[in-house]
């Protein structure tokens, strides 16, 4: 089992560009989450999903969109990147919510 | 509002015991989780407490007091590899959205 994988690992964008971050899990988990982590801080929830076809907003959803068309995949989109979105993005999945499994992260820089 | 408070840094000696405290104030509470994160790495799950009391997993134990809105992570027989950041996180409802604290950076010295 690969667990939770994220694509890409690193990305540099210019202000105004768009991109999609892909998260995939092979553990058949219902719950999936997108977090961002800024230097010296904890993780903040962007969006989450409690099952295929469902999505909901977290703490900091502005500027992001998500889709969960397949149970194993959770996509995070940035329509028009801003320097404030420079961060490390982590995806996580969970079977019952108590224990979340995190992917390796995507390091995004917006110039 | 939502807030979790934990010390920013703790230093301890190899072989010693260290306790990392976490106090929380959140709307809704299902349980308290602890995660470990090494520099440049992803968070990894350590423990989860839904009920009052102590949960033990090897060298790590976690405690919760719901009436005091307080919990702690206890690390025994510290090893150099335990140097990392430790985050407490509150599960607020049945969708298991986590609210994370800012983390405690633990430095283990020889």
Question: What labels describe this entry?
Answer:
heterodimer; A: 111 residues; mainly beta; seven-stranded mixed beta sheet; four-stranded antiparallel beta sheet; 11 strands; B: 110 residues; six-stranded mixed beta sheet; five-stranded antiparallel beta sheet; 0% helix
Commentary on this structure:
Chain A has strands at residues 4-7, 10-13, 19-25, 31-37, 43-49, 56-57, 64-67, 73-78, 87-94, 101-102, 106-110. Chain A is mainly beta and 111 residues long. In chain A, strands 2, 4, 5, 6, 9, 10 and 11 form a seven-stranded mixed beta sheet that branches. The model of chain A has no long low-confidence stretch (mean pLDDT 95). With 110 residues, chain B is mostly beta strands. Chain B has strands at residues 3-5, 9-13, 18-25, 31-37, 44-49, 53-57, 60-65, 70-75, 84-91, 98-100, 104-109. In chain B, the strands form two sheets. In chain B, strands 2, 4, 5, 9, 10 and 11 form a six-stranded mixed beta sheet that branches. In chain B, a hairpin with a 2-residue loop joins β6 and β7 (60-65). Chain B is globular and about 40 Å long. Chain A binds chain B through residues 31, 33, 40-45, 48, 50, 56, 58-59, 90, 92, 94, 96-105, and chain B through 4, 31, 33, 41-45, 48, 50, 87, 89, 91, 94-103.
């Amino acid at each position: 089992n690969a667990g939770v994988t994220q694509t890409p690992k690193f990305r540099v964008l210019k202000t105004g560009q768009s991109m999609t971050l892909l998260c995939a899990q092979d553990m058949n988990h219902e719950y999936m989450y997108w977090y961002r982590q800024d230097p010296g801080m904890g993780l903040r929830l962007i969006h989450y999903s409690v099952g295929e076809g469902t999505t909901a907003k977290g703490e900091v959803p502005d500027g992001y969109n998500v889709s969960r068309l397949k149970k194993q995949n959770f996509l995070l989109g940035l329509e028009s990147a801003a320097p404030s979105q420079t961060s490390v993005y982590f995806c996580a999945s969970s079977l019952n919510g108590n224990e979340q499994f995190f992917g390796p992260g995507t390091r995004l820089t917006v110039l | 509002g939502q807030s979790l408070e934990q010390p920013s840094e703790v230093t301890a000696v190899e072989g010693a015991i260290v306790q990392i405290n976490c106090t929380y104030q959140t709307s809704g509470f299902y349980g308290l989780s602890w995660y470990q994160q090494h520099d440049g790495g992803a968070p990894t799950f350590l423990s989860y407490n839904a009920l009052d009391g102590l949960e033990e997993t090897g060298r790590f134990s976690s405690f919760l007091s719901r009436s005091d809105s307080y919990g702690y992570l206890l690390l025994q027989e510290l090893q150099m590899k335990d140097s990392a950041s430790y985050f407490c996180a509150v599960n607020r409802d049945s969708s298991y959205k986590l609210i994370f604290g800012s983390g405690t950076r633990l430095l283990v010295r020889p």
